[in-house]
């Protein structure tokens, strides 16, 4: 199903975020916390966390946690230009990596908190080093791919490096339509950084648009799944600390994507959601995986309400790319006399 | 023990349909009345077609005569052509009577229905947002209350889903109106009226109870079936 990736079409959708009452006649009405009948804050609505703020702090900024106004302007300009440098118009060659500002949906602004990175702990804004064992395991995997790709049947992957492409299980999770982002924690990616929250007593449901991934977060105190049961996105449990929703996710299967690729089955993610004026959902998360990273790390990236809707991202149903990729690799291998 | 204000209060509040629900019949095998049948040889009795009565009001689906041939072809190819086997989203109403649970999250002006199978989800808009912007696998759902019944109007499905594992099908002209009514705190009566002038000679209705899952520890779990279908879909590609 063809689907444009431009910023969400502004349709007059009902149910805008934070369920504020209709604007009264006098301006600057005081913001009050919207609440459900059970008294807990109401997070319902459509949200985005797209941002120009980098995930981790550019090395040249060292321990500088905040931009000045001038630095922010320069950084935004540089980033937008870099993201839009591919402006080919007549070229009919391979479209791998042919993304420019038409596609990227990072918006055009830094986070209003003027931070130089989403990662806030460690204080240097960098994810801690991997454990020696994890680093060795990932290096061995990368070396195995390199060796494999000296033979036919590899293609340049979504990440710009050659990878086996003759079996679906060898391809990345994005090409398989299994995962396009981290989902937990909620980190922005290239586009479709949109989420729908629907909430009722005892349950908060967060739908991540890409790829229609719902996290059903019970807040009724039921225990986690048994430790023998592992899931791609873990098993979330929520509870309220005052007006903050705290969600703890465990039971991960160890298959992760993007910024979380290094994580394994020992991952635990803790998230904290708090609504603040004028209706921003602050989001702070901690990633704790002692067999992957030498220390836990924490990030902050707020969710901002948007006046729009989520679209169905039927990736697997329309995955013609998979057929073409496999077909190309297998034909290449047949020609070369491989199995 | 979960305590939810399930039935309507005397103050006129809407019923709360939130919770974990599941159909308990063999409608997903075949909507019309059917005897048991063999499944694929390699699976012995594991994937045999379970018998069941009709869930169609009046018994039979009113196909246009010209539309019956395609059902027959579908049925003959059921083990390879069924979109459910491909881990595709099942559409409405099939998502309701898959043999897997779903979660209704009844919010303020949206009702989310999250289905265990294939991470399927749809959002029911409780305030009319206008017509569908595009067609989709799960369609465009607009809901309203008629007394204690949640009525959901579903349009803009793309025509690529089946209605069951026996080849009953529809086109992209499908229009479904669902009705959800609590019969008791743990039984939700479900009806779906189906119209599709390209395939059926008149509207018809399926009707069945949905049961609240009361088991200790019951919750929707991950059923990401893409890895289970990749050999099925792609082993022969390019070979």
Compile the SSE list and pairings:
The complex is a heterodimer of chains A (339) and B (239).
Chain A: E1 45-48, H1 69-83, E2 119-121, H2 132-148, E3 154-156, E4 162-164, E5 194-200, E6 203-208, E7 213-218, E8 235-241, E9 244-250, E10 268-276, E11 280-288, E12 297-300, E13 304-305, H3 320-335
Chain B: E1 19-23, H1 68-76, H2 78-81, H3 94-97, E2 102-106, E3 110-115, E4 121-125, E5 140-146, E6 149-155, E7 175-184, E8 187-195, E9 204-212, H4 226-234
Parallel strand pairs in B: 4-5
Antiparallel strand pairs in B: 1-2, 1-9, 2-3, 3-4, 5-6, 6-7, 7-8, 8-9
Task: Give your account of this protein's structure.
The complex is a heterodimer of chains A (339) and B (239). Chain A has 339 residues and is α+β, with helices and mostly antiparallel strands. Chain A is built from three helices and 13 strands, in the order βαβαβββββββββββα. A six-stranded antiparallel beta sheet of chain A has the order 2-12-11-10-9-8, with no helix packed on it. In chain A, strands 7-6-5-1-13 form a five-stranded antiparallel beta sheet, with no helix packed on it. In chain A, strands 3-4 form a two-stranded antiparallel sheet. In chain A, strand 6 and strand 7 form a beta hairpin. The relative contact order of chain A is 0.18. Chain B has 239 residues and is of the alpha+beta class. Chain B is built from four helices and nine strands. A nine-stranded mixed barrel of chain B has the order 1-2-3-4-5-6-7-8-9. In chain B, strand 7 and strand 8 (187-195) form a beta hairpin. Chain B starts with 18 loop residues before the first strand and ends in a 5-residue tail after the last helix. Residues 1-11 of chain B have low confidence and may be disordered. The chains are: A alpha+beta (339), B alpha+beta (239). Chains A and B meet through strand 5, strand 6, strand 7 and helix 3 of A and strand 2, strand 3, strand 4 and helix 4 of B.
């Amino acid at each position: 199903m063809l689907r444009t990736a431009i910023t969400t079409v502004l349709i007059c959708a009902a149910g805008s975020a934070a369920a504020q009452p209709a604007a009264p006649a006098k301006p600057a009405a005081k913001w009050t916390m919207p609440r459900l009948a059970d008294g807990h804050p109401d997070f319902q609505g459509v949200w985005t966390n797209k941002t120009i703020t980098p995930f981790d702090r550019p090395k040249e900024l060292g321990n500088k946690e905040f931009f000045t106004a001038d630095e922010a302007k320069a950084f935004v300009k540089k980033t937008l230009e870099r993201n839009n440098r591919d402006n080919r118009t007549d070229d009919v060659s391979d479209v791998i990596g042919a993304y420019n500002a038409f596609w990227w949906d990072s918006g055009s602004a830094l986070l209003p908190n003027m931070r130089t990175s989403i990662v806030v702990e460690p204080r240097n804004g960098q994810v801690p080093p991997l454990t020696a064992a994890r680093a060795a395991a990932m290096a061995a995997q990368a070396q195995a791919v390199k060796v494999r790709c000296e033979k036919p049947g590899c293609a340049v992957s979504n990440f710009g490096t050659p990878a086996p492409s003759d079996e679906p299980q060898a391809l990345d999770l994005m090409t398989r339509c299994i995962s396009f982002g981290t989902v937990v924690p909620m980190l922005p990616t290239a586009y479709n950084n949109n989420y729908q929250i629907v909430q009722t007593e005892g349950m908060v449901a967060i739908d991540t648009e890409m790829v229609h991934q719902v996290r059903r977060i019970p807040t009724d105190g039921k225990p986690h799944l048994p430790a023998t049961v592992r899931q791609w996105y873990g098993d979330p449990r929520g509870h309220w600390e005052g007006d903050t929703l705290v969600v703890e996710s465990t039971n991960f299967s160890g298959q992760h994507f993007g910024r979380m690729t290094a994580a394994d089955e020992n991952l635990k993610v803790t998230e904290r959601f708090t609504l603040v004026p004028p209706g921003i959902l602050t989001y702070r998360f901690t990633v704790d995986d002692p067999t992957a990273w030498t220390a836990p790390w924490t990030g902050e990236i707020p969710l901002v309400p948007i006046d729009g809707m989520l679209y169905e991202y039927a990736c697997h149903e329309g995955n013609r790319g998979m057929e073409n990729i496999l077909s190309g690799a297998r034909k290449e291998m047949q020609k070369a006399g491989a199995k | 023990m979960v305590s939810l204000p399930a039935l309507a209060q005397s103050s006129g509040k809407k019923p709360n349909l939130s919770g974990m629900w599941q159909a308990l019949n063999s409608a997903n095998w075949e909507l019309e009345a059917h005897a048991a049948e063999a499944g694929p040889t390699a699976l012995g009795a594991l994937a045999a077609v379970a018998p069941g009565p009709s869930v169609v009001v009046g018994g039979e689906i009113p196909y246009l005569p010209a539309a019956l041939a395609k059902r027959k072809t579908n049925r003959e190819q059921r083990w390879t052509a069924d979109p459910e086997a491909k881990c595709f989203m099942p559409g409405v109403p099939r998502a309701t009577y898959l043999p897997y649970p779903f979660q209704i999250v009844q919010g303020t002006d949206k009702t989310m229905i999250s289905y265990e199978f294939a991470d399927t989800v749809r959002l029911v808009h409780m305030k009319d947002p206008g017509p569908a912007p595009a067609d989709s696998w799960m369609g465009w759902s607009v809901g309203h209350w008629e007394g204690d019944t949640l009525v959901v109007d579903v349009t803009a499905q793309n025509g690529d889903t089946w209605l069951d594992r026996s080849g009953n099908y529809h086109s992209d002209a499908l229009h479904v109106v669902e009705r959800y009514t609590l019969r008791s705190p743990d039984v939700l009566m479900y009806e779906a009226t189906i119209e599709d002038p390209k395939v059926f000679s008149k509207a018809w209705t399926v009707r069945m109870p949905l049961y609240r899952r009361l088991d200790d520890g019951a919750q929707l779990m991950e059923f990401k079936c893409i890895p289970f279908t990749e050999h099925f879909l792609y082993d022969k590609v390019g070979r």
